[in-house]
Amino acid sequence: MSTTRSIRISALLEDRDYDLQLTLVAGEKGLTRTLNSPRIQKPGLALTGFTEHLHPHRVQVFGNTEISYLRTLSEEKQREVLTRLFKEDLACVVVTKSLELPPVLIETCEESSLALMKTPLLSSTFIQQVQAFLEEALTETSSIHGVLMDVFGVGILLLGKSGIGKSEIALDLVMRGQRLVADDIVDVARRKPGAVYGAGNPVIKHHMEIRGLGIINIKDLFGVSAVREQKKIELVMELQEWDPDQEYDRLGVEDRFLDIIGVQVPLSVVPVRPGRNMATIVEVAARNHLLKLQGHHSAREFAEKLNRAIAEGAMRRTLGEEVE
């Protein structure tokens, strides 16, 4: 089940990864307000009273233009303008470039319980960085039962019913120098259109369950080079018990896809039975995927070559019959 997240305004102050450099000036009660959109807005004409295109629940960025305009107004007019603006249910206000804040702005934010923060960053830099922060913090997320591996740089998600051997295949791949991202529970998130990333659940990250051995720590056993924190999911391999009555794809001409929180990821259904070296099959699948990314689709090229041979053979037979 997927969920679209929301965060409190206070999360902006707690950021350490995107270097937002925010400090709270006023409106501490407003830190409990929530954000559910990564879009940022500069008030612009809204300060003059034209609020038709002002969107509520967004971070409002006050740069040099906004602060300079406020300073052209009397204190009474500033209070009137800001009071009207803050009735639009804004998320918070951020002043950039460490500009000196008009006292009326501080007072009005405090009275409206609207968080007022400042940053030394330029407006353009702050907007770029806070949007990146919000896109990650608010991304749609879900959890999948499976194993995620980094095989030759390709993120491969192994799916299949419990006990089919996903963890054993993953362990074999780690022994071959590939990297484990997550075992059993894969937390997935859509970071940008057309891309979904997987990571290990924080509780069981770097651990793997092997029946007969119990829980093992891949990072401790094989070192930090055997694990990854997260990886883009580029290929899904669904493992199924071999069924002699079922017909499996033997050419691979038609591409299949699996929907993961709105992203279509290439899918292969692979039958499992004793004697099949599944780790080798997974590695070959990764190599084949890399070939496809370079424009070489082996199955389609083979099918086209076969069709040409059949057509040429039919033409020779037709010409032979005409000569006779």
From TrEMBL:
Cofactor(s) essential for the protein: Mg(2+)
Region (Important for the catalytic mechanism of dephosphorylation): 271-276
Renumbered residue ranges of the record's region Important for the catalytic mechanism of both phosphorylation and dephosphorylation: 208-217
Reaction(s) catalysed (UniProt annotation): [HPr protein]-O-phospho-L-serine + phosphate + H(+) = [HPr protein]-L-serine + diphosphate; [HPr protein]-L-serine + ATP = [HPr protein]-O-phospho-L-serine + ADP + H(+)
Keywords linked to the UniProt accession: ATP-binding, Kinase, Magnesium, Metal-binding, Multifunctional enzyme, Nucleotide-binding, Serine/threonine-protein kinase, Transferase
Domain HPr kinase/phosphorylase C-terminal: start-end pairs: 137-305
GO molecular function annotation: ATP binding; magnesium ion binding; phosphorelay sensor kinase activity; protein serine/threonine kinase activity; protein serine/threonine/tyrosine kinase activity
Residues at which Mg(2+) binds: S167, E209
Pfam families: Hpr_kinase_C (PF07475), Hpr_kinase_N (PF02603)
EC number: 2.7.11.-, 2.7.4.-
Active site (catalytic residues): H145, K166, D184, R250
CDD domains in UniProt: HprK_C
UniProt KW Nucleotide-binding keyword: yes
The organism's place on the tree of life at top rank: Bacteria
HAMAP family on file: HPr_kinase
Miscellaneous section: Both phosphorylation and phosphorolysis are carried out by the same active site and suggest a common mechanism for both reactions.
Name of protein: HPr kinase/phosphorylase
UniProt gene name: hprK
